[in-house]
Structures are given as structure tokens and as C-alpha cells.
Write a structure and sequence with these properties.
73 residues, Lambda_DNA-bd_dom_sf, Helix-turn-helix transcriptional regulator, Cro/C1-type_HTH, mainly alpha, two-stranded antiparallel sheet
Length: 73
């Protein structure tokens, strides 16, 4: 998928655990793991806003677009 989720990068920068972030955002650690590992098909703006607030970052710090390989995509 061309959208890459960099939550793990921000977690490392903030020295925060997945469980702590999930608690702050109000979602389960399992649902956060689905998002963090790039398996989510969608993310609600309210969840994205809560992630940004908890991590003190911008949406672009968490999500980025990466072109698919022309031969494989």
C-alpha cells in the first residue's frame, strides 16, 4: 500500500510504549498495532487528531505516501 504509517518512529522519538499511547488515545493496543503495522484500511480523523495530540506532532509525521514500484504495482 502506498500509504506508510510511521507511528513507531514517533513512539521511539517520544520514548512512549504502544500501551501508553493506546491509553492516551482511547483505543485498544490491538487496534493501535493494526494501524502501526500498516494493516488498517482507514483511520478516523478523530483518531488521527488524538494521535497527534498525544505525540505532539502533525499528521504528516505519522502518515506518508510512498510510490509503488512500477514493475510490481
Amino acid at each position: 500500500m502506498p500509504i506508510v504509517v510511521d507511528i513507531d518512529v514517533m513512539l521511539a522519538r517520544r520514548k512512549m510504549s504502544v500501551g501508553d499511547l493506546a491509553d492516551r488515545v482511547g483505543i485498544t493496543p490491538a487496534n493501535l498495532a493494526v494501524l502501526k503495522n500498516g494493516r488498517a484500511k482507514a483511520v478516523r480523523f478523530t483518531t488521527l487528531a488524538a494521535l497527534c495530540e498525544a505525540l505532539n506532532c502533525q499528521p504528516g509525521d505519522l502518515l506518508r505516501w510512498e510510490a509503488e514500484d512500477a514493475a510490481g504495482g
